[in-house]
Amino acid sequence: MNPDIDDTTAALRALRSQSRLDKATAGAWKRGLDWLLSMQNDDGGWPAFEKNTDSPLISSLPIEGADTVSTDPSSADLTGRTLEFLGRYAGYKENDAPVQKAVRWLLARQEIDGSWYGRWGIAYLYGTWAALTGLMAVGVSPAHPAVQKAVDWLTRQQNADGGWGESCHSDEQKMYAPLGASTPSQTAWALDALIAVHPRPTPAIERGIDYLSRQSQAADWTTAYPTGGGRPGGTYFAYHSYRWIWPLLALSHYQSKYASAS
């Protein structure tokens, strides 16, 4: 029954242009933005549905999966995607107080190998994409050591065919597990993250673009593999639109960024 952080930013993206033209939409935009900012957890990150619910007492209850079904802590994916919205659509930058808190939270939660764990997608590719695109949108330097470490990690995970693919076992083991094949959505996430960081196309980016271009008509198991997260080790989602939406977004960002730079 609760409103959703991710759906709210999606709605606000859709309302942005119209909000500049009429008062009613402008009012809806402001209410949505105010609510979004009010939902920032005290630790600086954003949850999915509920604010400040990450109590160690709840996660210690003798209920299977209590840590994932009974709490809604800040996550790298929600925090990164909220930052990406605030930076690209709401004019927020690195020196704004909510952004400063969120950036500090993200940098403190980066894994040793350079990745971030994503709660609502599979898993380290998803979290790293969200974190990097969010950091770039609010003005963090591409040369920042944490950014470069994440880029190195992403590049190392690229498959021989130019794509990326991660197993759902990552979500359960809390450790990156290669799928052994590439998926459209995970390739798009990794590619979009690299595009956000690099001012010009790199060999890894070009190989990723080639993979997405070749796989647009594919219809094998990789296009239906679940890349949405539910309950680690128990529930995963294969969103049918993911194979189209995320590649289209990554390809459009590639076109808009590098075509204008050439």
Automatic annotation (TrEMBL):
Keywords: Isomerase, Repeat. It comes from Brevibacillus agri. It holds the Pfam family SQHop_cyclase_C. Pathway: Secondary metabolite biosynthesis; hopanoid biosynthesis. This is Squalene cyclase C-terminal domain-containing protein. Belongs to the terpene cyclase/mutase family. Residues 3-255 form the Squalene cyclase C-terminal domain.
